[in-house]
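To: structure subgroup
Subject: Chain for Friday's discussion

All,

I'm putting the inputs and outputs inline so they're searchable in the archive.
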Amino acid sequence: MMLHEYHSRSLEAALIRADESIQRMRLLLAEGGQDGVVRKIENNLSEQARAAVLAEVNSLRTLLAALAQAFSLQPHPLDLRSVLNAEIAALWVIFENCRPARMKGYGQEFSQDVSEALEKKIETVLAEILKLRAQLKQI
């Protein structure tokens, strides 16, 4: 079956997001958690429970693939460089929005010393993001 182009794009966007979520769940189940910087995901599931959840996650992915096939949605290969550039751009926006000048709209002013310290740390992070982007352009 063929969908109208607009419906096809909408369904494709939903499937992309769902597939990304499923891939993350599969990774978490395989690795037993994640050691994040400010949010650590700890494994509190037994091996049997992880295997059972993974089986269901894989079944869901199979259903998503069948849904895509039923409505003639084809995979669109993306090159790694483009995906990494998009992630780098998203990181830039995230940390630009962490500047004290942007966060002051939350109804609480920063003290001068906290504002300066945060601004300096954000500048360091943004510089590293720019370095990463430059490195990616060189390869």
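Points worth raising on Friday:
The CA atoms of residues 45 and 118 lie 38 Å apart.
The chain has a mean pLDDT of 95.

D.
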